[in-house]
């Protein structure tokens, strides 16, 4: 019988300790398996803080709760139960919860929260580089997903002796753990002692004593005494021989009396076991049982009697109101919030509960309404209006106004939202007079402040709530005004409004940053376009003017009620179109300057007509030399002179013809090409080597064999050195997701003299024409690499399609008809019109306004440009708006609309 009593008592102790550890083990498993990470520590949502405070306050044997990450950072949270704890960690007086964030570079931050989980202070410091990865609790838990217990040790921060339970996180990126102090375990065991004489001890597998119901000196410095040091080891069995499910009993004689010794193993995890050791004196066994029985009987009778009387007296009075409250709670659980009047009860406590529930639900209604408003806010003005509307409703104030500043000047405020049609408050004067009050979380305006702020309004009392970004920089201020005294209702809710504004501060900061980033992006786009214009002195402001013409066309299309009746652009649509217009020629940054500005056929970096001229100068000198040789040999001077003059005249005539072909203003006819080829067969003699003083690239193109001088060469040559193969960098086009249709010539550059002079129209060879047209491919390649937001995803297609033609003969994708986006067709008209009317191209004269429109009309007739857009361009006078602002007076001739329409027929 004595064994049964002791066994029951030991089982009771085991159950109590199991009830202590099991919820914590379950908590660790739950948090580890539900994605609990350091995110909650960094963002500190109030719901999470309240949950942690509840867990710690209801389980005060927990010293702390923390996470150690694989990168060496650690996060710890603890409750502030006593003044000693607050003093130890330098916490404010109202602190109930402290969060410590320890980064792996030694930086440490302590954040303090009060009962309402409001942040009331913080402290930054530098620790001695606390690295959780070096701690036993972290190492033990890294091997599996089981719960592990570390042998008692001195905690790093508090230096108190305790035990740590730990477990690896589900994502294996760290370890989650809780600490128990030995003092808390001792309190539990003392509460469960069998009698004053009984001795209860909790030992580790190594027989270190971690707690007892006796006033024993268990700790020696920062180490625990062992059973051997306390002279009880001789009574204890070998723990390795005890099975987990077994309870070991033995009778011993100790301290002049008989004792029942009971050893019960407590399995913490598959690898961790504690041992509960009970020494119960035989004389106390039956006495304790009688006392316990009598106490239980008395307590049970009293409890039943009181419960019966209470239930009988109050059931009818509280049943109905409680049922109503139950339904309200169920609605809250389903996130179904609504404002309503609660039913009154004859019981004051229930009425108080009614008021609390009503207040809570109204707060939740306001809170979630604000979240919905924030979610829909895309501009700071929308958010500002929502903030003042919500704040006024929550506080029942008379006027609410929001003022903000800008990153350029944080000391200058402007009003962005006003709850009523009243003049703005004088916040600027208050800030200039006493900006210290703008550092308070909430500032109640006194009589002097009110006079400065409210000025001529009816408000006499109020609050100022500064708005801070995440860097604690003042970004705005909410001013709340009351015509009369501030009610208790308003005072009770002002702190909730302060927390409510915290969400808005983050969104306001985000919108401000988005505005700055968008402004930066637009400036970068315009800078990119301007750099293309600056690259060539002849393109003028092409990339800057095309967006202006495009904008005029798009506005006219929006106003059109016939062909473009369904066309309209949102703010995002305008941004997409204009960015595409600004960037339509961005690929020209890869086009060589001498190709973009090539004014004559032989021009590269310089005009090689001068080399040809020098060869003719040599030939003319050769004619003079031949003349003098003939005279020296006895020929008649007059006949020799006539021959010389005839040769020189022929040379001058040939050079003049070559020079005329070099200009490229007119089509080169077949007979002119034949004459060029004939002239090219004329030879001249080079006496100097042409393979010295050259770059390595030029040398690589020369024959390495020793030159034989003098060398007879054709007057106009197409040499191997004039041919330039494609560079590997151009293979990027093969990596594009688009199928470009531009036919690539055999060589990237062909600078052959005869090859260039034989160009039939203009100044560009086929290779150079490809290099110019290739800018549209490069535009795609450049723009396709950028990560666009959803509303700008079509920028590459719109920008890159401005050289496509409706008949499918354009480039680089040979799109046709409706395949070409409407924005691309608008940019095409703007691009061609600006290019035709510009006066700064080196290879052509500027066209007049009428000439430009007739050329564009022929392009429309040939199926190259959009006829409807060109009709809009003409009928809405867009060409004239542009001409009046940008064209020279000599170009602004009278436009013959009849002649233009005749071309279109």
TrEMBL record:
GO molecular function: phosphoric diester hydrolase activity
Superkingdom of the organism of origin: Bacteria
InterPro entries in the cross-refs: Cyclic_di-GMP/3'3'-cGAMP_PDE, HD/PDEase_dom, HD_GYP_dom, Sensor-like_sf
SMART domains the record matches: HDc
Keyword DNA-binding: no
Transmembrane domains' residue ranges: 296-314
Keywords: Membrane, Transmembrane, Transmembrane helix
Domain HD-GYP positions: 684-889
Signal peptide: none
Name of protein: Chemotaxis protein
Organism expressing this protein natively: Moritella marina ATCC 15381
């Amino acid at each position: 019988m004595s064994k049964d009593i002791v066994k029951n008592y030991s089982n009771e102790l085991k159950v109590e300790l199991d009830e202590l550890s099991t919820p914590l083990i379950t908590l660790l498993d739950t948090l580890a398996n539900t994605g609990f990470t350091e995110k909650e520590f960094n963002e500190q949502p109030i719901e999470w803080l309240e949950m942690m405070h509840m867990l710690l306050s209801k389980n005060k044997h927990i010293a702390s709760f923390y996470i150690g990450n694989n990168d060496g950072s650690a996060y710890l949270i603890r409750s502030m139960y006593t003044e000693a704890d607050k003093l130890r960690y330098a916490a404010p007086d109202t602190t109930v919860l402290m969060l410590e964030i320890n980064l792996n570079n030694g930086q440490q931050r302590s954040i303090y929260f009060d009962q309402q989980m409001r942040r009331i202070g913080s402290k930054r410091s530098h620790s001695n580089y606390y690295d959780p990865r070096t701690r036993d609790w972290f190492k033990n838990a890294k091997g599996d997903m089981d719960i592990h217990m570390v042998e008692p040790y001195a905690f790093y921060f508090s230096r108190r002796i305790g035990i740590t339970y730990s477990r690896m996180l589900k994502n294996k990126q760290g370890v989650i753990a809780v600490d128990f102090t030995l003092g808390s375990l001792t309190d539990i065991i003392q509460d469960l002692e069998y009698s004053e004489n009984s001795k209860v001890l909790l030992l580790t597998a190594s027989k270190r004593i971690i707690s007892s119901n006796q006033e024993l000196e268990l700790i020696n410095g920062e180490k625990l005494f062992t059973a051997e040091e306390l002279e009880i080891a001789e009574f204890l069995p070998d723990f390795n021989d005890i099975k987990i499910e077994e309870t070991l009993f033995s009778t011993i004689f100790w301290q002049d009396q008989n004792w029942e010794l009971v050893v019960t193993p407590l399995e913490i995890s598959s690898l961790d076991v504690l041992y509960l050791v009970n020494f119960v004196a035989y004389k106390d066994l039956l006495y304790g049982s009688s006392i316990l029985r009598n106490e239980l009987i008395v307590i049970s009778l009293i409890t039943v009697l009181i419960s019966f009387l209470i239930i009988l007296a109050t059931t009818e009075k509280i049943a109905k109101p409680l049922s109503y409250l139950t339904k309200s709670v169920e609605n809250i659980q389903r996130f179904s919030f609504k404002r309503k009047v609660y039913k009154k009860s004859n019981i004051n406590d229930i009425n108080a509960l009614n008021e609390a529930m009503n207040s809570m639900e109204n707060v939740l209604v306001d809170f979630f309404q604000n979240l919905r408003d924030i979610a829909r806010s895309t501009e700071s003005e929308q958010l500002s209006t929502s903030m003042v509307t919500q704040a006024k409703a929550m506080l029942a104030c008379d006027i609410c106004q929001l003022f903000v500043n800008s990153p350029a000047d944080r000391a200058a405020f402007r009003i962005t939202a006003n709850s009523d049609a009243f003049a703005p408050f004088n916040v600027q004067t208050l800030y200039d007079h006493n900006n210290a009050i703008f550092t308070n979380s909430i500032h109640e305006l006194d009589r002097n402040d009110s006079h400065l702020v409210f000025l001529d309004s009816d408000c006499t009392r109020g609050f100022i709530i500064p708005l801070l970004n995440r860097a604690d920089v003042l970004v705005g201020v909410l001013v709340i005004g009351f015509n009369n005294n501030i009610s208790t209702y308003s005072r009770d809710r002002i702190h909730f409004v302060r927390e409510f504004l915290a969400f808005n501060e983050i969104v306001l900061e985000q919108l401000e940053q988005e505005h700055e980033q968008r402004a930066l992006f637009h400036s970068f786009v315009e800078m990119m376009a301007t750099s293309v214009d600056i690259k060539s002195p002849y393109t003028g402001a092409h990339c800057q003017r095309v967006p202006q013409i495009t904008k005029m066309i798009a506005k006219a299309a929006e106003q059109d009620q016939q062909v473009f009746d369904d066309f309209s652009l949102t703010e995002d649509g305008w941004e997409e179109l204009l960015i595409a217009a600004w960037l339509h020629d961005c690929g020209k940054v890869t086009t060589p300057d001498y190709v973009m500005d090539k004014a004559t056929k032989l021009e590269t970096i310089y005009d090689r007509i001068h080399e040809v001229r020098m060869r003719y100068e040599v030939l003319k000198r050769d004619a003079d030399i031949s003349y003098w040789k003939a005279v020296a040999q006895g020929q008649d001077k007059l006949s020799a002179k006539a021959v010389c003059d005839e040769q020189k005249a022929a040379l001058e005539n040939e050079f003049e013809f070559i020079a005329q072909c070099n200009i490229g203003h007119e089509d080169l006819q077949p007979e002119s090409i034949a004459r060029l080829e004939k002239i090219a067969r004329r030879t001249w003699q080079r006496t100097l080597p042409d393979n010295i003083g050259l770059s390595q690239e030029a040398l690589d193109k020369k024959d390495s064999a020793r030159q034989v001088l003098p060398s007879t060469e054709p007057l106009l040559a197409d040499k191997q050195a004039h041919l330039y193969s494609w560079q590997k960098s151009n293979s990027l086009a093969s990596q594009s997701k688009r199928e470009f249709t531009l036919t690539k010539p055999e060589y990237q550059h062909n600078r052959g003299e005869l090859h260039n002079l034989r160009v039939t129209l203009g100044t560009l060879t086929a290779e150079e024409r490809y290099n110019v047209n290739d800018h549209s491919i490069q535009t795609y390649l450049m723009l396709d690499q950028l990560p666009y937001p959803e509303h700008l995803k079509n920028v590459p297609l719109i920008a890159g399609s401005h050289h496509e033609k409706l008949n499918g003969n354009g480039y680089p994708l040979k799109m046709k008809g409706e395949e070409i986006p409407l924005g691309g067709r608008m940019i095409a008209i703007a691009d061609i019109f600006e290019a035709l009317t510009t006066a700064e191209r080196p290879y052509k004269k500027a066209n007049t306004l009428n000439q430009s429109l007739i050329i564009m009309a022929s392009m429309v007739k040939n199926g190259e440009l959009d006829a409807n857009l060109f009709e809009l361009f003409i009928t809405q006078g867009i060409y004239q708006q542009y001409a009046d602002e940008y064209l020279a007076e000599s170009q602004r001739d009278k436009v013959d609309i009849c002649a233009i329409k005749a071309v279109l027929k």
